[in-house]
């Protein structure tokens, strides 16, 4: 997904770069596309350098891995009743390693309640990166606690409350109004 001022059609700001249905195909994509290292695509805030890929007129804002047929948008039918668990991380951390751990946890289906995880995404927020885990549920305390604990451990966060939650229905309603 690239960063553009045109918000009239969210989906036209995205491009699918591949799909897979088994570990071998996933690894071919992962090993041969530079998206495995977020800093390759995103703005380098330490150098104040904006990276714009060939063929685009704006920088990439986010990279995601989602289930087939699920659009990384709040209003997607699979996402709308759910939420995303997210945390903000300093750009000076080893984002490649943290992003790989997040994606491999998704692919390996080792997040809590993996059948309800729709995808993961990393966003460039200047001097911060935001990692999100999108799920199809919201306001389920037991699941929420397990997911927050898992993400905090996975991303080596000091505190579980560093993982926040955003309900998609609330975001969608707020933006629509």
UniProtKB/TrEMBL annotation:
<keyword id="KW-0648">Protein biosynthesis</keyword>
<keyword id="KW-0396">Initiation factor</keyword>
<protein>
    <recommendedName>
        <fullName>Eukaryotic translation initiation factor 4E</fullName>
    </recommendedName>
</protein>
<comment type="similarity">
    <text>Belongs to the eukaryotic initiation factor 4E family.</text>
</comment>
<dbReference type="GO" id="GO:0016281">
    <property type="term" value="C:eukaryotic translation initiation factor 4F complex"/>
</dbReference>
<dbReference type="Pfam" id="PF01652">
    <property type="entry name" value="IF4E"/>
</dbReference>
<dbReference type="InterPro" id="IPR001040">
    <property type="entry name" value="TIF_eIF_4E"/>
</dbReference>
<dbReference type="GO" id="GO:0000340">
    <property type="term" value="F:RNA 7-methylguanosine cap binding"/>
</dbReference>
<keyword id="KW-0694">RNA-binding</keyword>
<dbReference type="InterPro" id="IPR023398">
    <property type="entry name" value="TIF_eIF4e-like"/>
</dbReference>
<dbReference type="GO" id="GO:0003743">
    <property type="term" value="F:translation initiation factor activity"/>
</dbReference>
